[in-house]
Design a protein that fits this description.
The complex is a heterodimer of chains A (318) and B (337). With 318 residues, chain A is an all-alpha fold. Chain A has a domain of 65 residues. Chain A is 85% helix and 0% strand. Chain A contains 16 helices and no strands. The longest helix of chain A has 25 residues. The radius of gyration of chain A is 27 Å and the shape is elongated. In chain A, 42% of the residues are buried. Chain B has 337 residues and is α/β, with parallel strands linked by helices. Among the domains of chain B are: 39 residues; 99 residues. Chain B has a seven-stranded mixed beta sheet with strand order 5-6-2-3-4-1-7, with no helix packed on it. In chain B, a hairpin with a 3-residue loop joins strand 3 and strand 4. The longest helix of chain B is centred in the C-terminal third of the chain and has 134 residues. The chains are: A mainly alpha (318), B alpha/beta (337).
Chain lengths: 318, 337
């Protein structure tokens, strides 16, 4: 009788506890921290920063990411702080501030390790590897990109961008076969993830690699693929690079008329994209190509354009 | 007991008084029964008439039987017989027997359109033989209100449809009225234009008169030139001979071509008419579909937000990070040139 009584009480208590827990689960309202005004403001500043970056307004992007960083530090949101630091570092790379980028990334890695923010840690290592590659420290870059891939792998994440970077670094180090293998993996991953930006980068890197391996037809196909994706994205600088890369292959193969056409396109795209130095480089190659084609009229015509462009640039044209 | 008996005079002849009261009551009851019996024709001599109806609906025991609007009896029995038909027996007062002759008919009718039902006996031929007790008379069904309503129903539906058709703002009638309105407005405008044109024509005619005078003076030399032109035209006519022959061939094939075009135009007309008729429905369908899709989206949103589904739906990652973008412009310099 007593046993039954206690069992009944225990059963009722268990039901009450279960209901209490379930009520908490069912509660529709988001957590209080999500509703925090400061978190929303930081999120908005980050969104503004990304928008400014996509428009090429790096100054505004840095300002907004800086604002987000201040807020996130004020509320001690370490995950968000790491994201802000990586964003600032990536914009710094674009404006050529490599030491600044490296400093922000060091902090990001430290905070990320403290906060056990694994996803951002991989991103931070990959960005650091990019800085190191761009500053000529290829060995260190390879170490850090491998670390990035390893950290991601441990947590079931795969970054097509990190693989692209690894492929480029390996190619630069002369490890062509390894690079080719890694870049093919990157291409597959970026295709699966519908990441057209990195997919174009994979094609471009593979084109470069095949060009190195004298597989010109294959290289041409891959540059064409990169060119198509870049025109869809409307990235002027990448389009010009794709065009001049294809022109370089044609020049090597002796297809000078085709090379001249592509160089002319590349020069126009660079000039209109505000890259006069690149446009001057294209014109130099174009003039050389036309002289090999024994077309003096064209040579004089583009030489005049080049001279006026050089003069304008020396006089302060941006 | 003794005190009451001795002093209260009301108790004198009490037994007699009670007996009188009882008698009065009994007589009253008997009179009442007699009156009711007379009322219900219980004491009149009767004879029965029978008729067979296809359906017993609305026929009840006790239902009055009337002849020329006078009650002559009641329905005494309603029974189901072979063939699922209904045999009705009516008890009719003997005094009305002289009116009940061969040729009379029975039918069920109502007093007014919504009154009580009764069996109506139609008057027969007065020269015919009198009916005997228990004879059967024919029954016919008279169309009542229900039948009228049933008949009126399709008519009402049609009227309703016609009214809808007339009132339809996209319908032919409304559109035609609209067009007539426009045409009449156009006619008004045309009348005004004609009046204005007539007024202007007066002035123009005056000018033409003066011009004709001037032309006459200049026409003579022109006529000379015209003669020369005619001579040239003659020569050209000869050359035009073969061209005209070709035109003949073309004109021969033209009717069949015109017929084909006509049939195509008919098809186009049919198509545009069909589209014109269907356009509002198509717009409705599109509208409904859009609304359904919108509601569907809201439902899915609601389901996704509800527990436990929201725990199963993967969270969409916001683009927090600037893309790493592995792009190195130096690749464009070309390899090993």
């Amino acid at each position: 009788m007593h046993k039954g009584h206690y069992r009944h009480k225990a059963f009722v208590s268990l039901i009450a506890i279960a209901l209490f827990i379930l009520a908490g689960c069912v509660g529709n309202g988001p957590r209080a921290v999500d509703e925090s005004y400061l978190h929303v403001r930081a999120e908005e500043a980050r969104a503004r920063g990304i928008e400014a970056f996509s428009k090429g307004d790096f100054s505004s992007a840095l300002h907004n990411f800086g604002s987000a960083l201040k807020i996130d530090r004020a509320v001690d949101d370490r995950d968000a702080e790491v994201v802000d630091l990586i964003n600032i570092a990536r914009v710094s790379i674009y404006i050529g501030d490599m030491p600044g980028a490296e400093s922000y990334l060091d902090t990001a890695i430290k905070v990320s390790l403290d906060a056990n923010n694994v996803k951002s840690l991989g991103e931070a290592y990959a960005t650091l590897a990019k800085v190191e590659y761009l500053t000529g420290r290829h060995s260190l870059a390879l170490t850090h990109v491998e670390e990035s891939i390893e950290v991601d792998k441990k947590h079931g994440i795969q970054s097509g961008a990190a693989l692209n970077l690894m492929g480029v670094i390996l190619a630069e180090a002369g490890k062509v076969k390894e690079a080719h293998h890694v870049l093919l993996r990157a291409l597959q991953l970026n295709t699966d993830n519908s990441n057209s930006l990195e997919r174009a980068n994979s094609f471009r890197s593979l084109g470069h690699l095949n060009d190195l391996m004298k597989k010109h037809d294959r290289a041409m196909e891959q540059y064409k693929m990169a060119y198509e994706l870049d025109t869809e994205a409307g990235n002027s600088e990448k389009i010009a690079v794709d065009l001049s890369s294809m022109a370089a292959i044609h020049r090597k193969l002796g297809h000078l008329t085709k090379a001249a056409y592509l160089l002319e396109r590349s020069y126009i795209v660079n000039l209109n994209g505000g890259r006069p130095l690149k446009a001057i480089d294209d014109l130099t190659l174009l003039i050389e190509t036309y002289s090999r084609l024994e077309m003096p009229d064209k040579v004089h015509y583009f030489a005049r354009i080049k001279d006026s462009l050089v003069t304008a640039y020396e006089n302060g044209m941006e | 007991m003794a005190i009451i008996h001795d002093k209260d005079s009301r108790f004198k002849n009490l037994e007699f008084k009670a007996g009188v009261m009882l008698m009065v009551a009994i007589v009253g009851i008997v009179v009442l029964v007699l009156l009711l019996g007379i009322e219900r024709d219980l004491f009149t001599k009767k004879f029965s008439l029978k008729f067979v109806a296809e359906n017993g609906a609305g026929i009840n025991k006790g239902m009055p039987v009337k002849l020329s609007g006078f009650k002559i009896g009641r329905v005494s029995k309603v029974e189901l017989i072979e063939g699922a038909r209904v045999r009705v027996t009516a008890e009719v007062s003997q005094k009305y027997a002289e009116y009940l002759r061969k040729g009379i008919k029975a039918n069920i009718t109502k007093e007014g359109y919504i009154g009580d039902p009764y069996v109506d006996i139609t008057v027969g031929d007065f020269g015919a033989t009198l009916l005997a007790d228990g004879d059967s008379i024919p029954y016919f069904k008279k169309e009542g209100m229900e039948e009228l309503i049933n008949e009126a129903k399709p008519v009402m539906t049609e009227i309703k449809e016609i009214i809808h058709y007339i009132n339809d703002p996209e319908g032919d009638i409304k559109v035609t009225f609209g067009n007539l309105k426009e045409v009449s407005a156009g006619l008004e405008e045309t009348r005004a234009v004609i009046t204005e044109t007539t007024r202007n024509a007066g002035g123009v005619l005056k000018r033409v008169d003066s011009l004709v005078e001037k032309v006459e003076t200049r026409v003579d030399p022109i006529l000379g030139s015209v003669e020369r032109v005619f001579l040239r035209v003659d020569g050209m006519t000869v050359k035009l001979g073969p061209v005209i022959d070709r035109l003949d061939t073309v004109s021969a094939t033209l009717p069949s071509t015109v017929l084909k075009i006509d049939s195509i135009l008919d098809d186009v007309k049919l198509l545009s008419a069909a589209l014109g008729t269907g356009a509002p429905q198509i717009m409705d369908v599109i509208g409904n579909t859009q609304e359904t899709v919108k509601e569907g989206k809201e439902i899915i949103k609601g389901v996704k937000a509800s527990w436990p589904v929201r725990l199963m739906v993967p969270k969409v990652e916001k683009p927090h990070l600037v893309p790493l973008d592995i792009f190195f412009p130096q690749y464009g310099a070309g390899v090993g040139e």
